[in-house]
Amino acid sequence: MRTRGSHLLIFFIILAAAAAGLVVFVLKRPRSRVVSPVLAAADETAPPPRRTLPPLPLRPLSPRLKALRGRAMEAASQVRGLEWRGEVGMTELSGWEYGTRTKEIADVLGTDDLKGLSRLAVAGGMLPEGTDLASLAVSFTAATAGATYSPLDKQVLLVSDSSGFRNTGLLTHEFVHALQDQHFDLLKLMLARPFSFDREEAAFALVEGDAVSVERRAAQGDIWARKTLEDVAREEDERYAGYRKGIGALFPPLLTETFIFRYRDGLRFVEAMRRARPAVNLDEVFRRPPVSSEQVLHPEKYLAGEAPREVGANAEGFADEGWRLTATTPLGEVGVRGLLMAGVQADEAKRAAAGWGGDRSFLFEREGHAPLFVWKSVWDTARDAQEFFRAYNAVLGLRGSPGAAPGESERVWREGGLVTRVRVEGDRVTVVRCADGDAAAALRLATESR
User: CA 240 → CA 246, 247, 265, distances in Å?
Assistant: First the structure.
């Protein structure tokens, strides 16, 4: 992978779908016994985020960049098979200006909600204490992107390069995003309500996979068409080997694997649609995008319309104990895989996540108490649930010390002043992480609802 590469505003990519007010909320509805995925959305009465930005600097492109832009737009349109509905601007920015623009976009989309998602991930032990996803996303963008399409500016933003920018493939990739925006409205696609991290990851994989597919086809032509899906997956995985050892090593595996998923697995999904018999029209896939990362990882499940199983929580019971639900989202198969990669080998993490059937994580808060994290997952079979149970406990064992547990179906881990209890029952696994004194009641409430 190029260290400074493509990428549809990476701020917008790294968990930033949450930035439209889709994660954190205060329960204002009448209490119901179970929180459904629909009720687990953001407060839908809240006003939509601002969609205005300060103007970009007005500076003409050099003749060379104009020609590069023209070639990239033509290649994107021809290979993707979509007509341009209007002009798309391109602005060259200095590194400082690009970093400033990234921060402005973060402010427009709203960082408070990413901070809420940060609290959920930290409370669950998924990310280190003190992690701020809003700041992390801005820093990541400024550090990695050489060119990007901004759906807020409706322009390709190009970072100035003293050696002279010459990467037509990179620009073709970004202008595919511009085409997608003109035809399918990227903001609407990726900020759909109610929020689901899993569904947003699937949407990003479709968007990025489409752009990578065009980039590869434009560069390789018939050679690319002769490659099998296995060849495609292997080559893309090899492209990211350097990334994992470089900048990717600075981030938790959950973020690194999620980022790679959008490109590697998104490309494989798009190519699977193109190569299906009969071939699937990608425009129709954009109109009916995959609803889970599982559908991207296993394209046959998208074609079969296999949706995730719903998972809820005993909202009334937790409220009666004084807990307020402040954030919730499913992680999906790719989130589970990335989380497990913090403690087991990649192949084992992939196998353990593959039996995923549905999940949802919840953050409850209560004055005077440590945050309460609840994570419920359902699996295709009881055997799949056991496999995840073993792998997840291996992750916990790397950072915590074991505590007493009722039996083989439950494990207890202690870390600092917190306790994590993990219980497997049939095809279901329930996790609670909180202060020791709250754990027993939390686990009881968490397992009451299906």
Answer: 10, 11, 12
Say how far apart CA 216 and CA 225 lie, in whole Å.
Answer: 10
Helix (H, G, I), strand (E, B) or coil at 81: coil
The H or E element that residue 126 is part of is none
The residue written with tokens 């074991």 in the block is 402
State the SS3 of 140-155: HHHHHECEEEECCCCE
pLDDT above 90: percentage of residues in the chain: 62
| H or E element at residue 449 | none
**Alpha helices (H) along 81-185:** 95-109, 112-123, 133-144, 168-184
CB count, 10 Å around CB of 225? Answer: 12
Domains of the chain by range and CATH? 315-448 (3.40.1000)
H helix and E strand count, the chain:
20, 10
> 3-class SS at 57?
coil
- pLDDT, tens only, 111-122: 656 677 788 999
pLDDT band at 273 (very low <50, low <70, confident <90, very high): very high
Q: How far is CA 124 from the centre of its chain?
A: 17
- Residue 48, pLDDT score: 47
- Give Dmax (Cα) for the chain: 72
Q: Are strands 418-425 and 410-415 parallel, antiparallel or unpaired?
A: antiparallel
Q: Which two tokens stand for residue 437?
A: 């004194």
Q: What CA–CA distance (Å, rounded) separates 231 from 59? A: 43
| Cα atoms found within 13 Å of the Cα of residue 111, Cβ hemisphere only | 14
Per-residue burial over 11-38, b = 16 or more CB atoms within 10 Å of its CB, e = otherwise = bbbbbbbbbbbbbbbebeeeeeebbebe
Tell me the Ramachandran region of residue 214: left when phi exceeds 0, alpha when psi lies from -120 to 50, beta otherwise: alpha
Distance CA 368, CA 436 (A): 14
What is the pTM assigned to this prediction? 0.88
Per the prediction, the chain carries an average pLDDT of 84
Give the whole-angstrom CA distance, residue 266 versus residue 246: 22
Say if residues 42 and 142 touch (Cβ distance below 8 Å): no
Residue in 433, 431, 394 with CA at minimum distance from that of residue 416: 433
**Which pLDDT does position 35 carry in this prediction?**
38
Beta-carbon count within 10 A of 128 CB: 9
Single-letter amino acid code for the residue at 235 = E
